[in-house]
Amino acid sequence: MTFLHIAMKDLRIRGRDRSTLLTGLLLPVALTAIMGFAFSSDSGISEIAVTIVTPEDGGFLADAAAGMLSRHELFDVDIADEETAVEMVRNGRRAAAVVVPDGLLQALEAGTKAEFLVYQDPVSSVKSSIVLTMAEQFTVAAGTGSALGRAIFLSIGDERELTDSERLALNGWMFDWMRDRWQNPLIAIKATDEAMREISLASYFAPAFAVFFMLFTLLGSARSIHEERDAGTYRRLRSCPLMRSSIIGGKMLGTYVQGALQILVLIGLSTLLFDLDWGTSPLAVIAMALATAAGASAIAIFIAAASRTGPQTDQIGTVVVLVMSVAGGSMWPLPRSFEPVSRLTFNYWAQKGFSNLVIHDAGFEGIALPATVVLSIAAVLFVGSVLILRRN
Amino acid sequence: MRNIWHIALHNLRLIASDRGALFWLIVMPLVFTAAMGFTLRGGGGRAEGPTRYALTVANLDTGAAGKELLDEIAADDEIDLLPLAPPDSITVEERARELVRSGDRSSVLLIPEDYSERLAAGTGTTLEFMRNPERMQPFVARQVVERLIARRNVEAMASDGVLEAYELVRGAPTQEVAERLATRVGTRLVDGLETRMLTVRSERVGRPEAEVPEMGFTHSAPAMALMFVLLNGLMLSSILVAERRDRTLTRLMSAPIRRGEIITANLLWRFLIGLVQMGALILFGRLVFGVDWGDTLVGLALVSASYVAAVAGLSVLIGSLSRTSKQAESLSLLLALTMCALGGLWWPLEITPRSYQAIGHLIPTGWAMDAMNNMLSRGYALERVIPQVLVLCGFAVVFAVAATMAFRYE
Fold it and tell me: Which residues of B touch A31 (CB under 8 A)?
């Protein structure tokens, strides 16, 4: 049981190190909080400043275009002339400006073309794209409605030319009829979100940052192999009646327990601070956490074992951790086309397991494959580390 | 002045002899720029052709209308149609739900089995669109489907509407007139819809589109350059702690070197390293990712220099306040990462709440990113980035003064 003593000694040293606590616990919690704040429900997407330029002869359609945006909760709308509007977009004070064309109604009545113009601020590309999409939706709807109205008017007029009173009656009826029919279309779409639970960005980033920073702090723990050698304490340990496997086992156990404690504390903190729901199966969460800690500690120990010095462990380890974190999606969500590359990383599988619990509430079934992959990585790297450490 | 140069050059030589430093100064920022740029490229900017989105469709309808809709979806430029084969043991609905929940498919459109029948009868029908809320793709796929069914809805509206309209002004039509009206309205509608009368043209305000780099790199190239200059600059704070620990500073005390000279030298060599790194990243950004850094080289130089000066000041401040190298490194990491997140280097500030944007402008990263955006995307001239440069210089002065006050030999 001597390896337990060595593991406990390492844990005590780590526990006293405030910088480990700062990097291992405070930093992931702080970044998850910042993410939560950045993408909170009252996020900036709800405050799209847009200016509308309406011509005097725009008629009800120009009013409808302005009304559609100003009634929508996403937009903060004002009216200005074109020159002022463009200047405000140029200064970054407006995400976009929508110019309703002159003679819009006359053009539609005559069946000729009219063009809306959207000025976009390139820095507010997301917000201005939303304005552009809204403008396109409006023109499609208005254009379709106009084509429909014209088709009906002309078809009746083909039978016998419409009188002014008939035209007036139809104009009054048409708008209400169309609105009513648009609300009750022949073919409707019902969208269903096929996730078991409501998700937030914290659901994604809490596990992602937990895995990322665990890898970092465990590297610091694993490099103690070199620190012990440099400080001469390893030689002192060897002079004691200890088997080499006990020393290696103790080092590995200490690193693993540190990782397991860190991720479990982070799960607890994210539950308490961010009200993050990790699913209805706490045992599955603990199992995934323990498997992830095994994988992360194996990676850290393998890097330390394969390195010649402590600083080399830091350098190689940081590169490996950063590359795996970027490619595995721990830093930001990656497009699906990148998934074949992501699958080659430890981070991807660890996060997959947690997201199956947090987002899909998939329990043990959801973590079966990710945990198996993570534990396989752990087993291979632990064996590799033991072989290298025994040889050295 | 000579003493300052001696100390600064000595430290520069030490850093230059570290092979790992080159990796962190240049290679890692480029890797991150590529990764982030690749990720953000889907968000807009110029594209070679229309982006295609996968949509799985399960057609349970055996009639003609279902097949017709399926063909229209397959023919759409924006959609890659993935048919769903009938499963053996479970229903198609269950299989579709399973595929979306597992993440294998982003969205599935279900055409109900009575689709053709209901359309023929003129009664309403509903298509079910299952989507994975983790993905953005379903939003676009749904828009395409809505566009396609909108046409069918309008056609249905036209045949009903013309009869109702006729009845309103001329009384109920005879069978013969009703048939004529239905045929004519259909033809006129097809003509009307084919000539899209209302269109939208968009125009970017700022630099001409051809000069602006692709969406992903417009953000990632300056953001990652600012991030790694900050990260490396702050990490250099541990060197000051090491000098104190190794009594190098105490030895300097006995030399004819003033306290101010030591501090200035520490600021200077950090500033020079940051400047070289920033310059190299700007150059590589141009050569590797084709980033055009704007129309004002002087503006770019001023923004870079003032930002690097602020980072150098903060680095010396952290080094002065920390007791151990580890403490300095941890504090640097904490500050660097939170400042990157708050300053809009990881995602554009435009998508965050106003209060978040206000906090982002209490730190140098927010102002530096503003200046970069103004030059790269808006094409601002030198005089319009001077306010950001002045604010960054202000940060540099505050940090340098604080560092001077906190500086200690032991």
Answer: 337-338, 341
Q: What is the rounded average pLDDT of the residues A110-122?
A: 86
B 332-391 residues inside an 8 A Cβ radius of A: 333-334, 337-338, 341-342, 346-354, 356-357, 373-374, 377-378
What's the pLDDT score for residue A244?
67
- CA dihedral of A244, A248, A250, A254, whole degrees rounded to 10: 160
- The reply to whether A218 and A174 lie within a common domain is no
Cα separation values, B231 from A359, B22, B337, Å:
33, 14, 8
Give the full edge-to-edge strand order of the sheet including A75-79: A75-79, A48-53, A96-99, A114-120, B198-204
A90 C-beta neighbours (distance < 10 Å), count: 18
In a domain, A4, yes or no: no
| CA dihedral of residues B299, B302, B304, B308 (deg, nearest 10) | -170
Q: Is the Cβ of A365 closer than 8 Å to some Cβ of chain B?
A: no
> Does one domain contain both A53 and A131?
yes
Candidates B177, B197, B218, B369, partner chain A, best to mutate (most A CBs within 10 A): B197
Q: Which domains does chain B have, with CATH numbers?
A: 2-44+214-406 (no CATH), 53-194 (3.40.1710)
Which residues are within 8 A (CB) of B384 and not within 5 positions of it... i.e. 6 or more apart?
B374
Q: Which of B168, B200, B333 to mutate to test the interface with A (most CBs of A within 10 A)?
A: B200
- Specify if A17 maps to a domain: no
Q: What is the rounded distance in angstroms from the CA atom of residue B410 to the CA atom of residue B403?
A: 15
- ipTM higher than the 0.90 cut: no
Same structural domain for residues A224 and A346? yes
- The radius of gyration computed from the CA coordinates of chain B, to the nearest angstrom, equals 32
Average pLDDT score over chain A: 82
In a domain, A287, yes or no: yes
Using the beta-carbon criterion (under 8 Å), do A147 and B330 form an inter-chain contact?
Answer: no
Look at the pTM and tell me if it is higher than 0.90: no
A309 and A256 in one domain? Answer: yes
Same domain, A239 and A356: yes
The pLDDT averaged over each successive group of 10 residues in chain B (410 residues) is 73 70 72 72 45 81 89 84 78 84 81 90 88 71 82 84 89 89 87 78 76 68 92 88 82 77 88 92 88 90 96 94 86 89 87 87 95 90 93 96 86
Residue in A17, A26, A37 closest to B334 by CB: A26
Among A45, A148, A326, beta carbon nearest to B189: A148
Residue-number span of the structural domain to which A365 is assigned: 200-391
Pair A168, A233 in one domain: no
The highest-confidence range among A188-202, A288-302, B50-64, by mean pLDDT, is A288-302
Judgement on whether residues A177 and A317 belong to the same structural domain of the protein: no
Q: Is residue A114 part of a domain?
A: yes
Q: Each residue of A15-60: pLDDT tens digit?
A: 777 777 777 677 777 877 787 777 665 555 667 889 999 887 666 7
Residues A225 and A267 in one domain: yes
Asked which of A153, A183, A213 is the last residue of a domain, the reply is A183
